[in-house]
Design a protein that fits this description.
The complex is a heterodimer of chains A (289) and B (380).
Chain A: E1 10-14, H1 19-31, E2 34-39, E3 47-48, E4 52-55, H2 58-65, E5 69-72, H3 76-88, E6 93-96, H4 103-115, E7 119-121, E8 127-130, E9 134-137, E10 146-153, H5 157-168, E11 173-178, H6 189-198, E12 204-210, H7 215-226, E13 231-236, H8 260-269, E14 273-274, H9 280-288
Parallel strand pairs in A: 1-2, 1-5, 2-4, 5-6, 6-7, 10-11, 10-12, 12-13, 13-14
Antiparallel strand pairs in A: 3-4, 8-9, 8-11
Chain B: H1 5-15, E1 22-25, H2 28-38, E2 42-46, E3 59-62, H3 65-75, E4 79-80, E5 83-84, E6 88-92, E7 98-107, E8 112-118, H4 125-131, E9 137-141, H5 149-159, H6 163-182, E10 185-195, E11 201-203, E12 206-210, H7 219-222, H8 232-239, E13 243-246, E14 251-255, H9 258-270, E15 277-280, H10 287-298, E16 305-312, H11 317-330, E17 337-343, H12 346-355, H13 364-375
Parallel strand pairs in B: 14-16, 16-17
Antiparallel strand pairs in B: 1-6, 2-3, 2-6, 4-5, 7-8, 7-10, 8-9, 10-11, 10-12, 13-15
Classes of the chains: A alpha/beta (289), B alpha+beta (380).
């Protein structure tokens, strides 16, 4: 088992003919992901790599292929529409990789997706991977190995860093999920932690947060009150100055809120393992497996 | 993106928000002319992207045009939090009876635009939130319907008992919400919103922050950017499509990805060093980006050693290696360089680097410890 995706996931790619979309479609297929269709308006009827059917709209792709997952690589101005189109077409899991989606767009997308009963991961995220089964997004497949640690993170390359160190130390992963670095995203830490708690294959969790907002503090409360499985946490941005956006739109300390110190204190109160350095995950997880 | 008070006021004025008349000046002579045109008492206000302008002496009253010129001379050219004041707003002084706060922010928890209003205005709203939370009313706006008149009226009555003033405030909130949405803001604030002895409700100060992700589709708003108000190195970085923030330390950091960049800075600190900057070269890095990144970092004379920390996913490490070789060919480095690189095309990258006399490690902790020692003047 795993969470959100596995061998049976049938994936469409919105923006399959674009630069990023086509590159990562090939990477996902190479990994073994079942890419059943692509969507690019105006290119319906064509084939991607002489093999994957392309449709003009998501509902057509769903009707023809019974797809249940969509991954979105369309440019920022069209990303909100793409997420809503996927939700309206009945896609159960929508993964939006696109970086730079205006936050006001997300205030409309979030309730829309929820009303349609879909789960959205992202935007501005690396996607997710269930090692050995399916990868949806851009996480490099070769750094992952199957196992029982669930990984959830707001960042991309920092996730790779930690997963790579785990794999080198012989610690495999059940599923790795990048929830994205924007202020409003579809899936929160709590959503993923809850899914890992219910997943029998996952026995411990690595969680990488960063400065900004209160998502990590709320997650810590959830871990304390509702979870039995051990969680090890890390917060990036301990040296970040207040009021400055540290790359991610969501990584900003506003006034005295959202600091690393505040988040680490919440972790401590929740009885979590605290990784001070990325490499600390290895030992802390090994003790807890 | 931050915009100046006078620009925010212009946006609000277009929506109909009552604001005392005012104009921007860059010289004391202009200040005097504007004060004369306005007549009566004026306020001269520094236009810089920093809070606490009043405390820093950047906001002053003047009774006569001559006094306004004098005040303008003092404020123009002064420094507030390291930023030189290039412009002042000269505005008619309002006769103030009460001061309230009205703001809209994007709230991550409710995932909506949320109004915050308080009858305790004129001061830092975070202070009110901490000491007197009952004095703040919060109202999340449903984006599907926008701000409803009854909601605006509830907030109006929270500020004022008098129905005429409550109505005037409610109208201003509708106008503020329209301005917030139409300019793609992530924050819009009127602080203070004042009442005058004549019973008028007027916005005396305004602040707006624009979501950077909105700028591509709003060229009119993007044109409000004041590059003279930005740090030179940060401006250069933005033009080169790099995310860069200057800090006080001496270890220059060049990293791919925001999370890893922050974690790298933290690790520098963990091993006893001080990061000189945050710099994210982004996902699809080209050699060109690396060249620009090195140029910006080496321009900082405080930097004593430089660290590359690259985890190649989308980023090709051979692109980074080529960038390092190109950048140093024409401008050899005068400070030591430590390269940590692993991931996509790592073998090619290592070959390129060793051919040009550079060493690299694949371990992040080793690299950081080494660069910290070098920055302190330790052995190579």
């Amino acid at each position: 088992m795993s969470i959100y995706i596995d061998k049976s996931s049938r994936v469409i790619v919105q923006g399959i003919t674009g630069r990023d979309g086509s590159f990562h479609t090939r990477q996902m297929r190479e990994y073994g992901t079942a890419i059943v269709a692509g969507v690019t308006p105006g290119k319906g009827g064509q084939k991607f790599d002489d093999d994957v059917p392309i449709f003009d709209t998501v509902p057509e792709a769903v009707a023809e292929t019974q797809a249940n997952v969509s991954v979105i690589y369309v440019p920022p101005p069209f990303a909100a529409d793409a997420m809503m189109e996927a939700a309206a077409a009945g896609i159960a899991l929508i993964v939006c990789i696109t970086e730079g989606v205006p936050v006001l767009d997300m205030t409309r997308v979030f309730p829309y997706v929820r009303e349609h009963g879909a789960r959205l991961i992202g935007p501005n995220c690396p996607g997710l991977i269930t090692p050995g089964e399916s990868k949806v997004g851009i996480i490099p497949g070769r750094i992952c190995t199957p196992g029982s640690v669930g990984v959830v993170s707001r960042s991309g390359t920092l996730t790779y860093e930690v997963v790579d160190q785990l794999t080198r130390a012989g610690i495999g992963q059940s599923t790795c999920v990048g929830i994205g670095g924007d202020p409003i995203n579809g899936t929160s830490f709590i959503d993923v932690l809850d899914a890992f708690e219910k997943d029998p294959e996952t026995t411990a969790i690595a969680m990488m947060g960063e400065i900004g907002g209160t998502d990590e503090q709320e997650a810590a409360r959830f871990i304390h009150e509702r979870m039995k499985k051990p969680v090890v946490g890390f917060i990036a941005g301990q040296t970040a100055p207040p009021g400055r956006r540290m790359g991610h739109a969501g990584a900003i300390i506003s006034g005295s809120a959202g600091t690393a110190a505040e988040k680490l204190e919440a972790f401590e109160k929740a009885g979590m393992g605290i990784a001070r350095r990325p490499k600390d995950f290895v030992e802390l997880l090994r003790e807890r497996l | 993106m931050n915009i100046h008070e006078y620009q925010a006021k212009e946006i609000l004025r277009r929506e109909g928000v009552p604001i005392p008349p005012g104009e921007v000046a860059t010289t004391p002579a202009q200040v005097e002319q504007i004060a004369r045109r306005l007549g009566g008492m004026v306020v001269v206000k520094a236009q810089v992207h920093a809070g606490g302008r009043g405390k820093a002496g950047g906001v002053k009253l003047a009774k006569t045009p001559a006094e306004a010129a004098e005040v303008g001379k003092k404020i123009l050219g002064m420094q507030i939090k390291g930023l030189v004041v290039e412009k002042v707003l000269v505005t008619a002084a309002a006769d103030i009876e009460t001061e309230a706060y009205v703001g809209i922010i994007i709230d991550r928890a409710s995932k909506r635009a949320v109004f915050m209003v308080s009858p305790a205005g004129g001061i830092d709203i975070e202070e009110v939130a901490a000491t007197d939370p009952d004095k703040i009313m919060r109202l999340p706006v449903d984006p599907r319907y926008g701000l409803q008149p009854f909601e605006a009226m509830q907030m109006g009555f929270f500020l004022y008992k008098d129905v005429a003033k409550a109505r005037a405030a409610a109208r201003i909130m509708q106008q503020l919400y329209r301005a917030f949405v139409s300019s793609g803001a992530s924050l819009a604030e009127i602080n203070p919103l004042v009442t005058t002895p004549g019973g008028e409700v007027v916005a005396v100060d305004a602040k707006m922050v624009i979501d950077d992700n909105e700028l591509d589709r709003r060229p009119d708003i993007a044109a409000l950017r004041d590059e003279s108000a930005e740090e030179t190195s940060e401006l250069q970085a933005r033009r080169a499509n790099l995310t860069f923030i200057k800090l006080e330390g001496n270890v220059g950091c060049i990293v791919n990805g925001a999370g890893l960049a922050m974690a790298t800075m933290d690790l520098v600190k963990y091993y006893g060093g001080e990061p000189a900057n945050f710099l994210d070269i982004g996902g699809s890095s080209s050699p060109e980006k690396v060249v620009n990144a090195l140029r910006i970092i080496t321009a900082d004379t405080g930097v004593k050693a430089i660290l590359f920390n690259i985890f190649g996913g989308i980023t090709r490490t051979d692109d980074v290696a080529n960038g390092i070789v190109t950048a140093t060919r024409h401008n050899p480095l005068t400070v030591p360089l430590v390269i940590r690189l692993t991931g996509t095309n790592e073998d090619v990258a290592l070959a390129i680097l060793s051919e040009h006399g550079f060493a690299a490690t694949s371990d992040m902790d080793d690299a950081v410890q080494k660069v910290v020692a070098l920055a302190k003047g330790g052995a190579k």
